[in-house]
Structure to design on (572 residues):
């Protein structure tokens, strides 16, 4: 770009832009999105999605609140004010990100195909945001994209810009990371590379990314998209968050590096029956196909470096039960062959045996329910997942099954001082079902015999970042106030229980194979602080005490350590 053009562009951004509306489009698990989700518990803002969300779908709108003005004659007139002025919006004086109008058509055309489309150009700047962490004992971190928070110092920089106009959306928001990647105690890898997963259970789950520090570049939340009313189609690398889970969703999160995908479907939209004009509820649906990649620490077979992911998500929020959502997410992972696009059309049927052998099909499905009670600021959710759609085991609903239950609750600490809290509880059980004790060692929901890489991308799991073959328990309290928030939480996870259970399949318990004291357990007690130094400038600081118990069967002494993290962010 020429210097003159760059000056013009900067000048337009600084001097000519003006806010468009009080809407917010936020990155997954960002401070802003977490805050808007908190406000949605009592209905201050409208939750924009049902069971599928990315940055592009995460468009939060404040609801209008009713006020009354007293007239001179003593009567009152109802007026409306946007929800941003509601007392429930604790951070209403903070800039959480602004949309700017670059240009607006003065005489918009009005054919049917342009109705519902903004005839102008709108911009949003993301960040920059600089994240840093230091793990003194072992790797720890999740839902952080391509960043792998190994032992030692880790840092990531992300920034981006988003342009919208005439139904098109262009988002460029990459992530650049550097990881010190210091050595720590872990079991030797079971595959060709010593850094691979220690159990040969058919999963490309990296224990350590090589023996030295390294950089990564990831496209992050970048994509191009076109929308017409509720219809949407896009291509990019925005990882979808699937289902209601707050920490460990089963099939979709931003825990792993992003992957390129093409998706098409309907965003959340109201459905009204024709002729009788009866509103039956909101629906949401998406299908997509993506490309997953092998890590550099798995095998030496270059022919299987890429896999195809075909998936669908469908959700329904009925009008006759307010604030309840039911939904389903389904994925197939196959070898990278054009003919495997056929799995886009499959619902939850199992493939034929020759497909499993030839194409390596791995299918998973989850069902979920989410229920909010706005009057008391409470939400409860649950998710149930099945691996390989075991129709032949239909009499056993627990074969390959995993479970999640969770809740959120608003705590009205001090209304006068605008101090409110939020309680989080989430329990995940991803362990092998009991019937496997009579069959064969089961690697878990994310591993598979035909797809030997499992449900991973570049060595990290696409779903739950902790408890992926075991269990996880999370309890946290976050306190919001006008200048920031304080978050205290306890997290326990046993990620590799299936490995221990596999040692007992078909064997009697003896002193030689007694594993109860060798459970790999992570215990964390953490405190995080979010502070707004200025209207546009914020910082996040945290410290966590860690206790780790390794399943090395030789040394059962726990390892103690700390995690320190700090982030700085500027919102334009």
């Amino acid at each position: 770009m020429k210097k003159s053009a760059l000056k013009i562009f900067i000048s337009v951004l600084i001097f000519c832009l003006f806010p468009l509306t009080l809407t917010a489009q936020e990155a997954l698990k960002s401070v802003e999105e977490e805050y808007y989700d908190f406000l949605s518990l009592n209905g201050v803002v409208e939750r924009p999605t049902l069971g599928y969300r990315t940055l592009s779908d995460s468009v939060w709108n404040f609801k209008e609140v009713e006020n009354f003005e007293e007239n001179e004659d003593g009567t009152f007139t109802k007026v409306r004010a946007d929800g941003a002025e509601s007392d429930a919006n604790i951070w209403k004086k903070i800039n959480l990100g602004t949309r700017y109008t670059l240009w607006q058509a003065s005489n918009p055309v009005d054919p049917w195909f342009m109705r519902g489309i903004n005839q102008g150009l709108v911009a949003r700047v993301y960040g920059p945001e600089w994240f840093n962490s230091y793990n003194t004992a072992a790797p720890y971190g999740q839902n952080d994209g391509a960043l792998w928070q190994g032992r030692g110092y880790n840092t990531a920089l992300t920034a981006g810009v988003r342009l919208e106009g005439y139904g098109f959306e262009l988002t460029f928001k990459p992530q650049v990371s550097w990881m010190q990647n210091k050595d720590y105690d872990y079991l030797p890898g079971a595959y060709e590379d010593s850094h691979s997963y220690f159990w040969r259970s058919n999963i490309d789950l990296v224990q350590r990314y090589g023996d030295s520090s390294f950089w990564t570049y990831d496209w992050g939340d970048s994509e191009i998209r076109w929308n017409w009313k509720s219809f949407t189609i896009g291509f990019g690398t925005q990882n979808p968050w699937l289902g209601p889970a707050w920490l460990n969703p089963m099939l979709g999160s931003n825990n792993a590096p992003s992957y390129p995908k093409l998706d098409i479907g309907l965003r959340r939209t109201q459905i009204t029956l024709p002729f009788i004009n009866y509103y039956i509820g909101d629906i949401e649906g998406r299908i997509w196909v993506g490309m997953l990649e092998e890590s550099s620490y798995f095998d030496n077979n270059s022919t299987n470096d890429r896999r195809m992911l075909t998936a669908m998500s469908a959700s329904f929020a009925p009008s006759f039960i307010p604030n309840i959502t039911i939904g389903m997410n389904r994925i197939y992972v196959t070898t990278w062959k054009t003919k495997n696009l056929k799995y886009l059309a499959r619902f939850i049927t199992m493939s034929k045996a020759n497909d499993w052998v030839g194409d390596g099909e791995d299918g998973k499905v989850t069902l979920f329910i989410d229920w909010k009670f706005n009057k008391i600021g409470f939400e409860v959710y649950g998710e149930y997942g099945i691996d390989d759609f075991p129709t032949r085991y239909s009499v056993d609903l627990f074969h390959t099954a995993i479970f999640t239950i969770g809740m959120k609750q608003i705590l009205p600490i001090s209304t006068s001082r605008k101090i409110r809290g939020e309680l989080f509880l989430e329990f995940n059980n991803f362990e092998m079902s009991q019937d496997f004790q009579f069959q064969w060692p089961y690697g878990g929901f994310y591993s598979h015999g035909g797809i030997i890489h499992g449900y991973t991308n570049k060595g990290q799991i696409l779903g739950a970042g902790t408890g992926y073959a075991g269990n996880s328990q999370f309890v946290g309290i976050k306190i919001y106030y006008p200048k920031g928030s304080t978050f205290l939480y306890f997290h326990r996870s046993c990620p590799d229980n299936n490995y221990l259970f596999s040692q007992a399949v078909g064997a009697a318990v003896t002193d030689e194979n007694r594993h109860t004291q060798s459970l790999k357990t992570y215990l964390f007690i953490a405190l995080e602080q979010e502070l707004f130094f200025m209207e546009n400038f914020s910082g996040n600081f945290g410290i966590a005490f860690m206790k780790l118990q390794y399943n090395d069967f030789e040394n059962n002494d726990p390892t103690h350590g700390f995690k320190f993290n700090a982030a700085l962010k500027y919102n334009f």
Summary: The longest strand covers residues 120-135. The chain has four helices and 30 strands.
